[in-house]
């Protein structure tokens, strides 16, 4: 069941397909970026927006090598899911994957090996074993409690984090809450 979220802090992130689909379906619990999420994004709603441009497998890699059968008709140029970033994966010089995660208390990140629970978040929603499968660095945003929207919400994406327009946010929120009652 989706949690009550502070929608005033909602941001969106545009992700190429088929990665947006893999996040929405709960297969991909980490989104690789070259930068950390801002502190105010941790624990806040993050809308996953599927980029409008089709990409080739050469550009995104072979998602099917992860054992996934990717549908041919993936939505483009639309919000497809809501998730909550709860931490950041990084690797250290020895190649170990580490995670700093939100504890539920302001500005108190913890560092630990992948596998600890995130206080205030249901660890059952995190596919810990597949974090390492999807992580490619340099920073991986750990995503928790992802909810796929029943219908894609058309929107124009942007680079980096962006604030969704009020009409898009209202429709995403309506579908998110609808999905939670289902």
- Average pLDDT, all residues: 78
Work out the number of β strands.
8
How many DSSP helices?
A: 4
**Based on CA inertia axes, which overall geometry fits?**
globular
Write the layout of secondary structure elements.
Blueprint: E1 11-15, H1 19-24, E2 30-33, E3 46-50, H2 57-60, E4 78-91, E5 97-101, E6 110-113, H3 128-134, E7 139-154, E8 161-162, H4 166-181
Parallel strand pairs: 1-3
Antiparallel strand pairs: 1-8, 2-7, 3-4, 4-5, 4-7, 5-6
Describe this structure in words.
With 182 residues, this protein is α+β, with helices and mostly antiparallel strands. The protein has one domain: Archaeosine Trna-guanine Transglycosylase, Chain: A, domain 4 (Roll), CATH 2.30.130.30. The protein is built from four helices and eight strands; from the N terminus they run E-H-E-E-H-E-E-E-H-E-E-H. It has helices spanning 19-24, 57-60, 128-134, 166-181; strands at residues 11-15, 30-33, 46-50, 78-91, 97-101, 110-113, 139-154, 161-162. A hairpin with a 5-residue loop joins strand 4 (78-91) and strand 5 (97-101).
Concise structural overview:
The chain has 182 residues and is an alpha+beta fold. The chain has four helices and eight strands; from the N terminus they run βαββαβββαββα.
């Amino acid at each position: 069941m989706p949690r009550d979220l502070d929608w005033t802090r909602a941001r969106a992130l545009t992700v190429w397909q088929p990665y947006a689909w893999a996040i929405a379906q709960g297969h991909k619990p980490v989104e690789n970026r070259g930068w950390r999420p801002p502190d105010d994004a941790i624990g806040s709603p993050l809308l996953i927006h599927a980029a409008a441009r089709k990409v080739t497998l050469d550009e995104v890699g072979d998602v099917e090598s992860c054992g996934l059968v990717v549908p041919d008709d993936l939505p483009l140029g639309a919000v497809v899911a809501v998730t909550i970033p709860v931490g950041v994966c990084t690797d250290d010089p020895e190649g170990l994957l580490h995670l700093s995660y939100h504890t539920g208390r302001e500005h108190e990140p913890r560092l630990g090996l992948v596998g600890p629970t995130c206080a205030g978040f249901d660890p059952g929603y995190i596919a810990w074993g597949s974090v390492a499968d999807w992580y490619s660095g340099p920073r991986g945003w750990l995503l928790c409690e992802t909810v796929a929207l029943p219908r894609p919400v058309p929107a124009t994406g942007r680079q980096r984090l962006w604030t969704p327009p009020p009409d898009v946010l209202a429709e995403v929120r309506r579908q998110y809450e609808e999905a939670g009652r289902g």
